[in-house]
Amino acid sequence: NSAFFRSTLPVLPLLLVLSPVNSSSCAMENKTTEIHVKYENILIHDISELVNISAQNRDRCCKNKKHENIKVFFCNDTQEIESLQSMACNMLRFFHKQRISKAFRWKAAFVSCGTLQVLKCKCEGHRKER
Amino acid sequence: MLRMTQPSTVLSIFAMFLHTTFGESGCASADGDGTLGDDEPDNFDIDCFSQLDIKDPFSSLTCNFTELPPHNTTYTLSLCTKDDNKYTCDNMKKQEDAYFLQFTDILSNRDLCMFSETKRRVCRSLVVTHIVKPEAPFAINITYQREANEYLIRYRTPHSGKKYLEGKLIHQIAYRQKEGTWKTIESPHHHVRLLGQNLEKNASYEVKVRSQPNGKFFKGTWSEWSTSKSFRTAREQHSTESYSSVVMIILSILGFMLCIVMIALIIIFWENRIKPAVWPNLPDHKKTLEKLCKKPKNNFDISFNPESFGYVHIHKVDGIRAKAELENFLQPSIAPETSLPEKFRKGSDLKMIPAMTDKSNLNLSVTYGGIWPAEAPHRLLSTSQLAVTEENCSSSTYEVCHGNRVPLHNSGGSNLSSAPPLDPSGQPRPEPPNDDTVSQMLPNYEMRSPNNEEAYVTMSNFYKIQ
């Protein structure tokens, strides 16, 4: 028995070291007031411009009948921050879609990056394009 | 067994040491604040300000050294962003004595780093939204409002149509009299009112405006002053001007009230007074005649039955024949006629019979076209007392002269029965004149009264007879 414990004891630190880095949880998880203030003074203007651009190209953006991305921009209750993070990261995937207008893609990327910046989040497995 | 556990123990301890040293927060610096600064403290004095949304979607950062670095050294200012333990820096462009940079991300926490030639880097944290310097206002407009005696100052700001600072600025208005002391007023709106009573009359003033973030989210410094605008205050209002305006107001009110009163009076008195005066009613002939005509007394017995006038002596008069007889009568007595007043020589067919005539030679011719009244001679005789004198041929005796022609003498035996007999035609036959008899041929044109003196008959006699 003493030999068993002596042999397994060092494994625990290895697990700690080799365990993956903490997941990209947003640092502003419990700071909703600060998030709200930054949204009201900065983000809301860019989101309004993005909405105006998408309204001008309404038919072009919604011709995908497969609805495969319907869950991309879905907002879960009580998981607003995670939902916002997911939406921002998913929106960044459209940056390279040439079928979407350049102005829309740039504005969408700008909003996504601003959202992630406010939430202090990162996208797992994605690079933020500037 | 013991040989295998010893290397694993060493390895685990080494791993734990690495984990603590390379934490999630990245590389720890000696100063412990997380910046990339070296052990030496930052010793550069620099003043920076940001201008948001200066050219959509870019914002700008401008920095100036408050203490110039030595000329022999070259420095590079960079705006850095920490991302995944990596610093991403953007070098600022040098423009004369300032460093300038345009960027889009105003949400991230930034660091301003200065790089020297020796690769020494000194950084300072920077919050872009806390060093905002707005753009200067423009288009100052001053309007004088005479009624309120106020000066309305309006201005515009470039941030009115932009994203971030619209409605989040506070403006400062500075004004002064020429070469005087500046006075300031702050307002969150785009206009300000200056009271005229606080300014000197007929004086020249200067106004300028600047802006600053209101401090709720965006913080920063005052913008540059706008271009100054000058204006001249109004002259002192004379009391007469205000008095005349008050008088005009009072007069207009009185005139309006007078018009209302006049309209009311016209409406009230239209039917009774105004309309009859403007459009008088045409008189009713029947009513008018009723007013003019006197109603006879109740005891009057008016009748047009000829039989009821049996007692009345009606003499038909032949106008032409009467005239001829009268001329024959007047010819023998021309001389006395000339002594009469002139007025009696003219006139109607019935000329004045001269009063002074020879009674004995006087022949009276009475010509009637009608019936010789039976009472006529009696009346003629009763007038024998009358003396017609030349002097009494007045209007009152004219009838007597006309009626009698000659004073009658009561010869006692006058025989009035010598009335001329009636012709079958009703015309009396002329009788030869008789010296003893006096026959008067009276042209009785009218009988005014039962009295023998009046031989004329008028309509009014009917009323009197009755």
From TrEMBL, chain A:
- The name under which this protein is listed is Interleukin-7
Q: Which residues cross the membrane?
A: none
Protein family (similarity comment):
Belongs to the IL-7/IL-9 family.
| The entry's keywords | Cytokine, Disulfide bond, Glycoprotein, Growth factor, Secreted, Signal
Gene3D superfamilies from the entry? 1.20.1250.50
Annotated signal sequence range? 1-23
* Single GO cellular component term: extracellular space
The record's subcellular locations are:
Secreted
Q: Name one Pfam family in it.
A: IL7
Biological-process GO terms, alphabetical: immune response
Identify the species of origin: Neopipo cinnamomea
Q: Does the record's keyword annotation contain Manganese? A: no
An example of a GO molecular function for this protein is: cytokine activity
> Which InterPro entries does this one have?
IL-7 (IPR001181), IL7_sf (IPR038325)
User: Gene for this protein?
Assistant: Il7
Automatic annotation (TrEMBL), chain B:
For this protein, the parts annotated as crossing the membrane are 246-270
- Which parts of this chain are annotated as the region Disordered? 404-453
Location in or out of the cell: Membrane
Identify the stretch annotated as signal peptide in this record: 1-23
Could you tell me the keywords of this UniProt record? Disulfide bond, Glycoprotein, Membrane, Phosphoprotein, Receptor, Signal, Transmembrane, Transmembrane helix, Ubl conjugation
What the entry lists under CDD domains is as follows: FN3 (cd00063)
Q: Can you list the GO cellular component terms from the UniProt entry?
A: external side of plasma membrane
The UniProt entry lists membrane topology as: Single-pass type I membrane protein
Q: Name one GO molecular function term.
A: cytokine receptor activity
Which residues fall in a compositionally biased region of kind Pro residues?
Answer: 421-431
- BP term (GO), one: positive regulation of receptor signaling pathway via JAK-STAT
Domain (Fibronectin type-III): residue spans on this chain: 133-236
Pfam families referenced in this protein's UniProt entry, alphabetically: FN3_7 (PF18447)
What the entry lists under PANTHER family is as follows: CYTOKINE RECEPTOR, INTERLEUKIN-7 RECEPTOR SUBUNIT ALPHA
Family per record: Belongs to the type I cytokine receptor family. Type 4 subfamily.
Its assembly, as annotated, is: The IL7 receptor is a heterodimer of IL7R and IL2RG. The TSLP receptor is a heterodimer of CRLF2 and IL7R. Interacts with CD53.
Entry function: Receptor for interleukin-7. Also acts as a receptor for thymic stromal lymphopoietin (TSLP).
Q: What is this protein called?
A: Interleukin-7 receptor subunit alpha
What organism is the protein native to?
Neopipo cinnamomea
